[in-house]
């Protein structure tokens, strides 16, 4: 049985722009803590190797103290006789004068920074070969070629694992990432490898049911879009069979988004705060030891809409909620939030409001127009491949627009 720990997209020393100094420090510490947790797991298991599928750090801004902390953890793995195979990505590419090439890595680290495939044999305590990793790195920051087609087909009589930082077209959320080293599931499948350890897309997933190719996701969420459990993948590969892959949560901070869209009767700060607290407690019990960064999307009709559109009011309330929920940070986002207005009485009426409502309804219900709009505005439907999915996405963007337009027209008419 070959046992591996698959990590990717650590992005050490992310800037975290727009956050307070204290919060930036805490988020950077969380990255180091998550990596330490990963090393703990690798040693306790123990694994036969740790695989890092690119973007270990966030460009050449890796600080000296972070580098020292990283090397300390890698030396722990060295002391435990656990090899590390690290293939560079677009944020930590491998040119001769680049940051990855300049670090004095411990002897157990196999740095792969070339586009030429490199085979790293894995052995047991007796020196018997139990598997091999075939890895390709990014030699520069922007690789547009398909690196996956460079990998040779599997020939060894032991499990073969591919290690690559790549943009796999079929992956969920792939459209949210730059199209570097693009490839398809078929490119990976043709190799016959037992497992593919991928990096680049930050959502952990098996990208295709027919191919043992996985994104580990990033080790620690970095922004409000990177929600949920973050960590790595523990992979067990039998001599002849499919890999057993389990998610290992390593991140000490979890980003989470709450959506409150039933606010028609919420007319006070206490009522709103209570609703947010109830919604948070429902998910908080799932991970009591985790610290939280919480974004709250407020949608629909709400008597407090005008106040919640005031940034100062939101910041003051968010500060109170941060203390009340005992979390690191709360962000309030008004999302199609409007004062309570009745749309129906104004529909089909011979005035401007009636005409605007009719226009919005025509757009929302006209499939042909939505298809045309989706083609003209390609950025409006990332990751939505079918016409039906694109129409649904655009209809979602139009949701609540009738109330918002009517609210503005009625205010202007007063």
Automatic annotation (TrEMBL):
One of its GO terms (molecular function) is hydrolase activity. It comes from the Bacteria. The keyword Protein biosynthesis does not apply. Residues 3-203 form the Calcineurin-like phosphoesterase domain. The keyword NADP does not apply. InterPro entries: Calcineurin-like_PHP, DNA_Repair-Maintenance_Comp, Metallo-depent_PP-like, Mre11_N. Keywords: Hydrolase. PANTHER family: COMPONENT OF ATP-DEPENDENT DSDNA EXONUCLEASE, PHOSPHOESTERASE. This is Calcineurin-like phosphoesterase domain-containing protein.
């Amino acid at each position: 049985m070959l046992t591996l720990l698959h990590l990717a997209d650590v992005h050490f020393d992310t800037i975290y722009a727009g956050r307070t100094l204290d919060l930036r420090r805490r988020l950077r510490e969380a990255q180091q803590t998550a990596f330490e947790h990963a090393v703990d797991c690798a040693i306790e298991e123990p694994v036969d190797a740790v695989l890092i599928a690119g973007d270990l750090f966030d460009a050449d801004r890796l600080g000296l103290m972070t580098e020292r902390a990283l090397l300390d953890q890698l030396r722990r793995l060295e002391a435990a006789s656990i090899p590390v195979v690290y293939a560079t990505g677009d944020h930590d590419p491998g040119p001769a004068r680049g940051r990855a090439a300049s670090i004095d890595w411990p002897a157990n680290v196999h740095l792969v920074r070339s586009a030429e495939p490199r085979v790293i044999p894995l052995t047991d305590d007796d020196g018997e070969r139990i598997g091999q990793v075939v890895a390709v790195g990014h030699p520069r920051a922007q690789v547009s070629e398909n690196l996956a087609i460079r990998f040779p087909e599997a020939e060894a009589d032991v499990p073969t694992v591919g290690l690559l930082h790549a943009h796999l077209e079929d992956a969920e959320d792939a459209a949210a990432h730059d199209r570097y080293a693009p490839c398809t599931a078929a490119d990976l499948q043709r190799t016959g490898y037992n497992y593919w350890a991928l990096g680049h897309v930050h959502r952990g997933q098996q990208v295709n049911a027919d191919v043992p190719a996985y994104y580990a996701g990033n080790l620690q969420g970095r922004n409000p879009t990177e929600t949920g459990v973050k960590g790595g993948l523990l992979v067990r590969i039998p001599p002849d069979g499919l890999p057993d892959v389990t998610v290992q949560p390593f991140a000490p901070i979890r980003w989470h988004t709450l959506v409150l869209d039933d606010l028609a009767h919420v007319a006070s700060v206490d009522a709103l705060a209570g609703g947010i607290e109830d919604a948070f407690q429902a998910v908080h019990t799932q991970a009591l030891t985790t610290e939280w960064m919480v974004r709250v999307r407020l949608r629909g009709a709400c008597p407090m809409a005008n106040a919640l559109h005031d940034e100062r009011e939101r910041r003051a309330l968010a500060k109170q909620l941060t203390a009340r929920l005992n979390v690191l940070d709360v962000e309030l986002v008004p999302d199609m939030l409007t004062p309570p207005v009745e749309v129906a009485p104004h529909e089909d009426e011979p005035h401007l409001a009636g005409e605007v409502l009719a226009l919005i309804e025509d757009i929302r219900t006209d499939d042909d127009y939505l298809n045309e709009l989706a083609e003209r505005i390609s950025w409006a439907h990332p990751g939505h491949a079918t016409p039906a999915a694109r129409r649904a996405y655009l209809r979602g963007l139009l949701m609540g627009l009738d109330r918002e337009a009517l609210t503005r027209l009625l205010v202007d008419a007063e």
